[in-house]
Amino acid sequence: MSFDIVVLPGDGIGPEVTRAAVAVLQAVGRRFGQGFRFDTQLIGGAAIDAVGEPLPAATLDACRRADAILLGAVGGPKWSDPSSRVRPEQGLLALRQQLGLYANLRPVRPHPVALGASPVKPHLLTGVDLLVVRELTGGLYFGEKKRHADRASDLCEYSVLEIERVLRRAFGFARARRGRLASVDKANVLETSRLWRETAIRLGRDEFPDVALEHHLVDSMAMYLISRPRDFDVVVTENLFGDILTDEASLLAGSLGLLPSASLGDGTRGLYEPIHGSAPDIAGRGIANPYATVLSAALLLRHSLGLQDEALAVELAVACALDAGQLTADLAAPGQAIGTQAATQAVLDHLEARCQVPELRD
Ligand code: NAD
Ligand code: IPM
Ligand code: MN
Fold this sequence. Notes:
By secondary structure, the protein is of the alpha/beta class. Helices cover 43% and strands 18% of the residues. The chain has helices at residues 14-32, 44-51, 57-65, 88-98, 114-117, 122-125, 160-176, 191-206, 218-227, 239-253, 291-303, 308-323, 340-352; strands at residues 2-10, 35-40, 68-73, 103-108, 130-135, 145-147, 152-154, 180-185, 212-217, 234-237, 260-264, 270-274. The strands form 2 sheets. The chain has a 10-stranded mixed sheet with strand order 2-1-3-12-11-4-5-10-8-9, sandwiched between helices. It has a two-stranded antiparallel ribbon with strand order 6-7. Strand 11 and strand 12 (270-274) form a beta hairpin. Helix 9 runs parallel beside helix 10. It is globular and about 50 Å long. The site of nicotinamide-adenine-dinucleotide has 22 residues, from helix 4. Manganese (II) ion (MN) is lined by residues 243, 247, 275.
């Protein structure tokens, strides 16, 4: 089969980590006889510098025609002046909204390497297997913004339809996994959260009575994620809460550099990106961890292209690299780190060798 993939390297470490993921996809194509056509386009600060806007029409058009999109990261100090008219992040938000990608999947499954790298105590981490479903096209991010000389506001708005569609996805994933869904809100304070909770209760009762639904307030959930992460299966929440909780959850895996994501809408086209940003503090030094982006490419193979064996092969290759201690500076012991290119080569070698690890075997 032949597939069209748009590549959006973006800013900072974005180009470094997308290069790694594209190399892995090319190797997957060779091994499994799949044809991937890559079309690299501008987004974010790189697009502002080149054409004056963060999401050029040519990029959006290419994304609309593609089977899937792979993105590195956008943003950085060069474009972060609070008074700027355009910002790199607007490009990413517009892309998510224009493509209707309302469900952002952020799986968190610590590899044993996390036991050494995470600040969380090892006995809390074994057996953790979370899927956070973050609503991605509503809430504070997209509500009306106002700015006056002496005040500013961001409107937080959700319709029942917006809440229902992301909850249905989350309930569906919970049904296919361990049958448990934790819905996270701030219903003790926010009207949008009360609507969210009512909707979750109604859908649970009417459509998913087989899924055990529980509710948590976001502040205590932030604490439970660290104190008892094993107790959760699928976690669903609104846009901003999901953004914050998943950077926190990355510590369960040991590093932000390990967490992939898939952003999905109603069709199969999706946007795949690591949950981390452009990491300006390490950009251009060849030391960024490429595994989150490589694992995002695995999600791309699975969710947009329907290539299950290929996705698993990539996940196995990354697991083998972690098993072998082939770690970048965010995970390695002092003096033991390898660079982005060596980490990429490690994945390519394990892919070629058809490496297997016990916990990921079929
Ligand atoms: P960040 O995620 O870029 O970095 C946070 C910390 O994690 C830094 O110390 C960084 O070095 C480290 N880190 C992140 N990814 C890493 C990797 N792959 N390997 C090793 N270390 C890694 O967050 P930030 O510094 O708050 O934001 C920087 C810029 O990125 C901002 O402009 C922000 O808007 C943008 N951002 C973009 C995205 C995206 O494009 N999806 C996501 C988050 C932040
Ligand atoms: C993420 C990022 C983005 C978000 C920013 C860059 C707009 O933090 O993908 O997690 O907040 O959604
Ligand atoms: Mn984020």
